Amino acid sequence: METKQRKKQRLNRDAIAMRAAKELKSGDYANLGLGIPGLCALHTPKDVMFHIDIGALNYGPLLTSDEIDKADFHYHDSQGRFWSPVPGTAVFDVTTSFLMARSKRLISIMGGLQVSENGDLANWNTGGNALGGTIGGGMDHAHGAKRLIILMEHTTKKGEYRIVNKCTYPLTARECVDLIITDLAVIEVKLGGLLLKEIAPGWTFEEVQELTEPVLIPAPDLKEIEL
């Protein structure tokens, strides 16, 4: 499962985020999780409205390192990145923020550790260390999102499956994932199984299947990932 495929080029983190950003359209409301999902903000249409768990909606551009003198400690996201308010930015308490998260109005893009063939999500702890992670707002978004998109590497650093028949890590939520985007593939979670819609350039269906535990269903229009 290791040797041949590992020599092939996979998408990097920014490319995964670029592909995920194509799922966001003008007028969408979206929440971006930690890690790769946070990079999506750099590639989305300007009129996508982003939501922050700690209490803001429709915030302005992120400040660069050259603009640190403009940083206001009242305006930062869940990853500690500073942003600037724009006309229409709303700031509110965390209770209101999580009511929004559970409202089925937000598209949520989150990271993942494992996703099962029926859309179960494990994204906060590998189970080996109870202090290895905190679930944070993961459950709220997983259950309450209008659409849940998971971004992650297709396999672990050891080459172990991340897309599995059944999650072995502590669950975040059951049957919640709509779309999985990895460094190798775009996969839709459907009632009949996992539909492989796109694959990384230079890869074949058989090679992606070898690195995926559940049986994949190739889409009739299966194509290479386009950024």
Within the CATH hierarchy, at the fold level, what is the topology?
Answer: Glutaconate Coenzyme A-transferase
Number of helices: 5
What is the straight-line distance between the termini?
A: 27 Å
State the helical fraction: 10-25%
Quick one: biggest sheet? 10 strands, mixed
Low-confidence stretches: none
Give me the Rg, rounded: 18 Å
Strand order within the widest sheet? Answer: 4-3-2-1-5-8-10-11-12-13
Describe this structure in words.
With 227 residues, the chain is of the alpha/beta class. It has a single domain (3-51, 94-224), classed as Glutaconate Coenzyme A-transferase (3-Layer(aba) Sandwich). Helix content is 15%, strand content 24%. The strands form 2 sheets. The chain has a 10-stranded mixed β-sheet, with helices on both faces. It has a 3-stranded mixed β-sheet with strand order 7-6-9, with no helix packed on it. The chain is globular, with a radius of gyration of 18 Å.
Describe how the helices and strands are arranged.
Elements: H1 3-6, H2 13-21, E1 29-32, E2 49-52, E3 56-57, E4 90-91, H3 94-101, E5 107-111, E6 114-116, E7 121-122, H4 138-144, E8 147-151, E9 163-164, E10 179-181, E11 185-190, E12 193-199, H5 205-210, E13 216-224
Parallel strand pairs: 1-2, 1-5, 5-8, 6-9, 8-10, 12-13
Antiparallel strand pairs: 2-3, 3-4, 6-7, 10-11, 11-12
